[in-house]
Amino acid sequence: MRAMLNPSGRPLPLHPIVREEQQDTAMSITKDRNKNSTQDRIVEAAVQLFSRQGFNGGSTSEIARLAGVSEVTVFRHFHRKKDLFWAAIESRLRRLRISKELLGRLAADEHPRTALSGIIALLVETVRHQPETIRLLYVALFELDHGSERVLRKHLNMLFEPVREYLSRCASKGLIRDLEPGVATLGLAASVAAHHSLNPMLSDGEGLCVNTDEAIAAYTDFWMKALVPEAALVSVELTLNQVAVLA
From CA 220, how far away is CA 211, in angstroms rounded? Predict the structure, then answer.
C-alpha cells in the first residue's frame, strides 16, 4: 500500500483501521510460522517413533515428549493417531524421486546391462540412507491395512511406473525375459529391501556387501542373470569386452 502524503510531502499517519489490519497480518504470519514449526517437530518425532516401535507400539504421549509439546497440542494438529502416522510416512515418501537423468535413460530404452544398475543404485541408496522410510512402509503394510493403498499408490507409482514401463518395452524387444513387468519391478525393490534387512541375521555376515558400490554390483549381477536370456547375456558380455579392448 502506498503512503498518502500531506501538502509538505511527508507521509500522513496511517488510519487506525489500516494500522490494525497490518498488525493483524503480521501476527497471522508469525502464528502460521509457529504452527508449521510445531507441526514439523511433531511429524519428525512421529517418524522416529513409528519407524522404531511401529504404529501400535508408538504412543502419542511419547511423540509429544520427543517433540517438546503437550499431547493436547499433538491432537490439536492431528485429530487421530492415524492422521499423524500418514503425515509422518508422507513426509518421507515425498523424498523418493527418480532423477531426471535416470528417467531419461529409461525413456531412451537404454540397454538393461547399464540401465539396471541405475535402477538398483536408486533402490540401494534408498534402503541404506533412508531406513526410516523402509520401516514406515513395513508398518503401513502390516499394521494399517485400511488407507495404506491410497497413500502408497500416490507416492510409489511415481517411482515404480517408469521402471515397469521400461521393463515392459525391454520384454517386447526381447532384451529381457518375457516376465510380467509389474511383478519384476516389485521383485527388484523387494529383493533389495529384504536382503538388506535379513541378510545379517541369516548369513552370519557372509555375502554381506560392505559398501554401496559392492551392493549395487552384486544386485545388478543377480538381476541381469535373472532377467536377461543367457544368449543375450553372452552377447552383451562379448560387446563389453570388445569395447574394453578398443578403449
Answer: 14
Beta-bridge mates of residue 11: 5
Over the stretch 133-171, which tens digit does the pLDDT of each residue have? 999 998 998 898 676 778 888 888 889 999 999 999 999
pLDDT digits (tens, 9 = 90+) for 8-57: 555 555 555 544 544 444 444 344 455 579 999 999 999 999 999 999 99
Residue % of the chain over a pLDDT of 90: 56
